[in-house]
Amino acid sequence: MKAKKIAVIGAGVSGLGAIKCCLEEGLEPVCFEQRNDIGGLWRYEETPESGCASIYKSLFCNTSKEMTAFSDYPFPDHYPNYLHNSKIMEYLRMYARHFGLMKHIQFLSKVCTVRKRLDFSTSGQWDVVVETDGKQKTHVFDGIMICSGHYTAKYLPLQDFAGIQKFKGRYLHSWEYKHADDFVGKRVVVIGIGNSGADVASEIGHVAEQVFISTKRGTWIWTRVWDNGNPMDVTLFTRYNSTVQKFWPTFLINRWAENKLNARFNHANYGLQPKHRFLSHQATFGDDLANHIITGRVLIKPNVKEFTATSAIFEDGTEESIDAVVFATGYKLSFPFLEDDSAILDSQRSMFKFVFPPQLKKPTLAFIGIIQPIGATIPISEMQSRWVVRVFKGLKKLPSEHDMMADITRKRKQLAKTFVESPRDASRVQYIDYMDEIASELGVKPNLLSLLFWDAKLAKEIFYGPCTAYQYRLQGPGKWGGAREAILTQRNRILKPLRTRVFTPSGPPSSRLFWVKCICAVIFLSIPILLIIQMIHH
Ligand SMILES: *C1O[C@H](CO)[C@@H](O)[C@H](O)[C@H]1NC(C)=O
Ligand SMILES: *[C@@H]1O[C@H](CO)[C@@H](O)[C@H](O)[C@H]1NC(C)=O
């Protein structure tokens, strides 16, 4: 039988993983990439291109390298734990080269439409119209993997900001923000305190005259650097923790987390205290933010009520004169190439496990990486792709439409209970839970019980150590011979880039010296006492 042809839309982290998974299962992938390079979101460009993701120059990944890596391709051990976008690009190039992905990518090729073929109900095939060099061409595919990401269409709710048309200064979305040069000596308001808002405000804070962050909701601030200087995700995202959390009541976990974060700085005193509890909404990474607030370079403000020509008036009635506004208001989903966009997706919530639209007669279209994990995206996209290619091949069956809808409804209810109402929280998943869920579909979830008997050392690291993706390559389809080794050496790879100056204590350790001194003191002090006792006995 001829290998099935699969269209992969986008050559970012999700697309690269998708191509690799297709090849692994003997499918024939063709990846269409709008730009002339791989990397998607992670490829920094000086000028943003409409319809593409765009990042600022200083963007660092918010998940650490061990948690971020593809499941069969660890980062080099000397790489820092949190990677600059240029380093992620290096890694992606190595990955693409290692698995021979480049020859499957057609660059400067924009997918215009993806449409069901007339015989879709029997063939499950799609017509894909691709524009290259200004010329459009239609291709037929047996399956579609949409890997175009969810950071391409900026969400800019100008209608919520009265008077913004009158404002004489510059305003822009964080999508257009590249570096702080334009803001030297300026007074700037950043709207929103998500990860981009906090990053942009902190960066501008170094050079601006004054930065304000305006936030309706407030937020919990957590940091990349966690206890003992270990990466946050490595410490918190363990199977042990996830098991403990299943038994503990939510309010206790919330209290534990909030106390911990407040111990660093009191969120109420710093103007950041949100109404929602820690687990109900995405926390913001802000390693630098507290320093900026305590030195006054960044001030936290409530919502902007209205803009005048030269100032912002906040909901508490205060007014500040300003030169620029940065809207860090996030992104919305956009798949302009999908013909009946609304029928296939009302919102991401209507996908079966965030991947398959349940209404399709044939499961030949999948969304990869259109999800908001509390944890790294690369391994999640990769896991989705591994599942999808098995479904495309017919090795895995999806439940009936009715059962899929029931599952979706159930998940929606759970989400509504757990999270505050916000578009992004609609597709938020706990990293370990979601990975395990898809891994179980595939039969690649590590079997801890049998490991405990056969390989206790490994079982221990899998349970207590960071839940890295190598775990999902120990067994089942796509098993990788290097997985065990990768798991047992992950802590070395975390420490290697930090221990660049090895500490060698000189002389006897001070603690030993301390005890020697103590003993001397005791002997010295007891001599007169012994003498006195002797005298009394005489
Ligand atoms: C997770 O486990 C680590 C040690 O493995 C511990 O330091 C941390 O407090 C735990 N966190 C939660 C939320 O249970
Ligand atoms: C990292 O940042 C992205 C973009 O703001 C966010 O969607 C994701 O949830 C963040 N990761 C974690 C672990 O919070």
TrEMBL record:
Broad spectrum monooxygenase that catalyzes the oxygenation of a wide variety of nitrogen- and sulfur-containing compounds including xenobiotics. Catalyzes the S-oxygenation of hypotaurine to produce taurine, an organic osmolyte involved in cell volume regulation as well as a variety of cytoprotective and developmental processes. Its EC number is 1.-.-.-. Belongs to the FMO family. It comes from the Eukaryota. The chain crosses the membrane at residues 513-533. One of its GO terms (cellular component) is endoplasmic reticulum membrane. It is a single-pass membrane protein. Keywords: Endoplasmic reticulum, FAD, Flavoprotein, Lipid metabolism, Membrane, Methylation, Microsome, Monooxygenase, NADP, Oxidoreductase, Phosphoprotein, Transmembrane, Transmembrane helix. PANTHER family: DIMETHYLANILINE MONOOXYGENASE (PTHR23023). This is Flavin-containing monooxygenase. It is an enzyme of class 1 (oxidoreductase). Its cofactor is FAD. Signal peptide: none annotated. One of its GO terms (biological process) is lipid metabolic process. Pfam families: FMO-like (PF00743). It comes from Chinchilla lanigera. It catalyses: octan-3-one + NADPH + O2 + H(+) = ethyl hexanoate + NADP(+) + H2O; hexan-3-one + NADPH + O2 + H(+) = ethyl butanoate + NADP(+) + H2O; trimethylamine + NADPH + O2 = trimethylamine N-oxide + NADP(+) + H2O; heptan-4-one + NADPH + O2 + H(+) = propyl butanoate + NADP(+) + H2O. GO terms for molecular function: flavin adenine dinucleotide binding; N,N-dimethylaniline monooxygenase activity; NAD(P)H oxidase H2O2-forming activity; NADP binding; trimethylamine monooxygenase activity. The lineage of its organism: Eukaryota, Metazoa, Chordata, Craniata, Vertebrata. It is found in: Endoplasmic reticulum membrane; Microsome membrane.
